[in-house]
Amino acid sequence: MMMQNTYDEMNSTLVKQWLTHFSLCAIMAQILSIYGLVASVIMSNNIKEKMAIHTAFLQLGAGISVGLCGMAAGFAIGIVGDAGVRASSQQPRLYIGMVLILIFAEVLGLYGVIVSILMLTRSTDGVTECRY
């Protein structure tokens, strides 16, 4: 009986460890949505009733930048996460390599946010009234 309890405790610990390891892909995919939220909050603070046309186009470009980079990063995280979880369940030492590749995939989304913030900070320079 004592041996069975020890086995059950060890098995439940392994299951918890694997669940936390494999949920990393889902957590990193959710970070991409936070990047879009940051860009949209910055954009919503700059919206005025009379806004220059170049400001509107810069905001459009910033949104497209975050969206496309987030989509590319999401695809990369999905593909790497699928292959990495399958491989690291068979050979646990591949987990660290999977995490490194996931970080590189996440950086794609971060680059989109950086470009978006650069575009949004430039959009307030030299605001002129649009007369169209």
Could you please describe the fold and organization of this structure?
GO terms for molecular function: proton-transporting ATPase activity, rotational mechanism. With 132 residues, this protein is mainly α. The protein is built from 4 helices and no strands. The chain has helices at residues 2-22, 24-45, 53-90, 95-122.
SSE order, one letter for each helix or strand: HHHH
- What low-confidence regions span 5 or more consecutive residues with pLDDT below 50? none
Question: Class by helix and strand content?
Answer: mainly alpha
Average pLDDT confidence is 81
- Give the fraction of residues assigned to helices: over 70%
In short:
This protein has 132 residues and is an all-alpha fold.
What are the SSEs and their pairings?
Blueprint lengths: L1 H21 L1 H22 L7 H38 L4 H28 L10
Helix pairs in contact: 2-3, 2-4, 3-4
Main location: membrane
Organism: Gibberella moniliformis (strain M3125 / FGSC 7600) (Maize ear and stalk rot fungus)
Family: Belongs to the V-ATPase proteolipid subunit family.
Identify the notable features of this structure and list them briefly.
single chain; 132 residues; mainly alpha; Four Helix Bundle (Hemerythrin (Met), subunit A); 83% helix
